[in-house]
Specification:
The chain has 335 residues and is an alpha/beta fold. Helix content is 43%, strand content 11%. The longest helix has 26 residues.
Length: 335
């Protein structure tokens, strides 16, 4: 009993310390997630990462961009995997009738701007019509220019077995190649327009043979455009690289759309496979009209809210330096 009484003060002290420690632990609550907190930046997407997405059957999201603002928009979502500087910029940005009018200089110019605004997405650029058709050496030189000057991480080429040698050489020198089979917009004249490819047996077999040959040549991925959904699925199952569909059904490894189609700013033809995810054209046009209207009726800019002011004494001195008489607002002269 004496021993217990002897140790009672120490026990009390120990219990007090434990209670204080427990209170401290209880006060440390897990942080509440703020819905306005920006998402954690995503690591840079690599070719290896794309193959991992394919293996896990996680759909790959690719979107086109043509300038710094659209590149920022593509990078704003951590779910965007690939940003493509598409030759469709010929029509949606430059007003050309077709992609065949786009020059390599123009592509380099726009790709530079996109590169400056791209963060995590893998950056790919289309090689314009004529930049890889004359010879393998010309194709390599032009692709090198896109990588070195524009800062892209790979190039996309439209075509089938006829461009196998180009794909092989580009791969050998270390330039990643994304192939493009099915509908080839750069050859719309030869194809009698923008028509679905592979609807008949021979056409379908041709697209499949092209896809297999380009994979064998070293392409790390391929776009499959405007083919029946069954064929898009079959090609995806036959090849061992990611397939990115555009009008090729829901069973490819991923999807790509043109930025202006997604945002609803393109007023031209709307393909069957396009879904508009925003209606920015109406917002844009309304904004332009409201601005012009405010200028016309004199409500913009506001003298107080949207204008700068000068210190009154400094303004008086300025007027005097200009030899002008300083007039008081109440009608009297300022000293």
């Amino acid at each position: 009993m004496a021993s217990l009484l002897t140790h009672t003060p120490r026990l009390k002290n120990d219990l007090a310390a434990l209670l204080i420690s427990a209170r401290r632990r209880m006060s440390v609550r897990p942080p509440v997630k703020d819905p306005t907190t920006p998402p954690i930046p995503r690591k840079k997407v690599t070719i290896q990462a794309l193959h991992a997405l394919r293996q896990s059957k996680t759909p790959i999201a690719m979107l086109t961009a043509y300038d710094y603002p659209s590149a920022l928009a593509c990078s704003s979502s951590t779910l965007t995997d690939i940003t493509l500087v598409g030759d469709s910029l010929a029509q949606v940005c430059l007003g050309y009738a077709s992609t065949t009018q786009l020059t390599l200089d123009e592509m380099v110019h726009h790709a530079k701007a996109v590169a400056r605004g791209t963060t995590h997405p893998l950056l790919i650029a289309d090689m314009p019509f004529g930049s890889y058709h004359t010879s393998v050496s010309d194709a390599v030189a032009n692709a090198v220019r896109l990588v070195r000057e524009a800062g892209v991480e790979g190039v996309k080429l439209e075509g089938g077995r006829e461009i196998v040698d180009v794909v092989k050489k580009l791969t050998e020198v270390g330039i990643p190649v994304m192939a493009h089979v099915g509908l080839l917009p750069q050859r719309h004249s030869a194809l009698s327009g923008y028509k679905v490819q592979g609807r008949r047996v021979e056409g379908a077999r041709r697209v499949v043979r092209d896809a297999l040959a380009l994979e064998e040549a070293g392409a790390f991925s391929m776009v499959v455009e405007a083919v029946p959904k069954e064929l898009g699925r079959y090609i995806t199952e036959r090849v061992r690289i990611p397939t990115i569909g555009i009008g090729a059904g829901p069973w490819t490894s991923g999807q790509v759309l043109v930025f202006d189609d997604v945002m609803g700013t393109w007023s031209g033809h709307k393909a069957k496979f396009v879904r508009r995810f925003a209606n920015m054209k109406d917002v844009r046009d309304t904004g332009v009209h409201r601005y012009a209207e405010a200028v016309r009726d004199g409500t913009f800019p506001d003298a107080e809210v949207e204008s700068y002011a000068m210190d009154e004494n400094e303004w008086d001195k300025f007027l005097q330096s200009e030899g002008l008489h300083v007039q008081r607002e109440n009608g009297g002269d300022r000293a």
